[in-house]
Amino acid sequence: xxxxxxxxxxxxxxxxxxxxxxxxxxxxxxxxxxxxxxxxxxxxxxxxxxxxxxxxxxxxxxxxxxxxxxxxxxxxxxxxxxxxxxxxxxxxxxxxxxxxxxxxxxxxxxxxxxxxxxxxxxxxxxxxxxxxxxxxxxxxxxxxxxxxxxxxxxxxxxxxxxxxxxxxxxxxxxxxxxxxxxxxxxxxxxxxxxxxxxxxxxxxxxxxxxxxxxxxxxxxxxxxxxxxxxxxxxxxxxxxxxxxxxxxxxxxxxxxxxxxxxxxxxxxxxxxxxxxxxxxxxxxxxxxxxxxxxxxxxxxxxxxxxxxxxxxx
Length: 313
Fold this sequence. Notes:
There is one protein chain. A hairpin with a 2-residue loop joins strand 2 (115-126) and strand 3 (129-142). The relative contact order is 0.15. This protein is 29% helix and 27% strand. The chain is built from nine helices and ten strands. Helix 2 (22-32) runs antiparallel to helix 3 and helix 2 (22-32) crosses helix 5. The mean pLDDT is 93. The termini are far apart. With 313 residues, the chain is α/β, with parallel strands linked by helices. The protein has a domain at 8-221. InterPro entries: DUF1853. It holds the Pfam family DUF1853. This is DUF1853 family protein.
C-alpha cells in the first residue's frame, strides 16, 4: 500500500523506477495499477476481476524481463501496433501465458461465416472449467456533476462513456459463454465471467470527486481547455503517443520535450485540424532521466459544451 499523499507517479517511480524498457514498464503498470472499478462495491454484483498484489516472484520476473526482453518482444511481434487496447491485451496475454493460466486469447464466436457473435478476450484455467475475463484499458474525463452516474465519465473523443462501456460488458460480452454458438468452441464450461478494467480517470484541473463503484486509489489526472494552459505548473511537457499512455513516462531522454510556449503553439496547430484532445505528460529532468510527475488531457476550448450536449441532448 502506498502513501495516500503520493501521486500515483511518485508511487510508480519508487516501486518500478528500476525498470527501463517501455514495454516492461507498461506490463508492470497493468499488473500493479489499481483496478479502475472497486471490486468490493455491490454495484458490480461480484463481476469485477482483480489481479491482486504483485508477488515477489512476479516482481523478480519483471526485473529479469527488463534485463532480457526477448520473450516479450517475440510475443508482441514485429508488426507496428497503433491500437492501445490491442497492445495492452497482448501484454496481458503474455503474462497469463507465462503464468501457465492462459487457455485461449481472442477466441471469436461465430453463428455462421458472416455473423460474428462476439469474442472471448481471455479464457483462463479454472480447474474443471475456465474463467472468462473481459479486459479493458480505458481513459475517461469527468464532465459535469454526478447526476448521469458513470455516464458522466466520457471518452476524450466523446464516442463512449464509462457507463455505456460497462453496460455493454455486463449485458453482452460477459454473457458470451452462454450463447449456443460458443458451446462447441469452449474447451471446458465457463465457471466465472468477470471484467478486468484498468485505466486513468481525468478530472477538471484542481478538482476531484470520489464516486461509489470507482476504486478510491485509482490512477487519475486532470483535464483543461487550451485557454487554461498557462495555469499548468512546470515548464517541460511531452505530448504522449497513444502507446505510451499506460504507465507514467520515464526515459533517459526525449527529443520531443516542449516548453510551455512550444506546447501552446503545437496544441493550437493541432486543434485547427482536429477536435481530438491531447494527452500531455508534465515532466521533470533528473540526473540521467526524464520523469513524469503529472498528466492531463488538453481539450479544445469548445469541448465542455460539446460534452454537455452529448450528456444532455
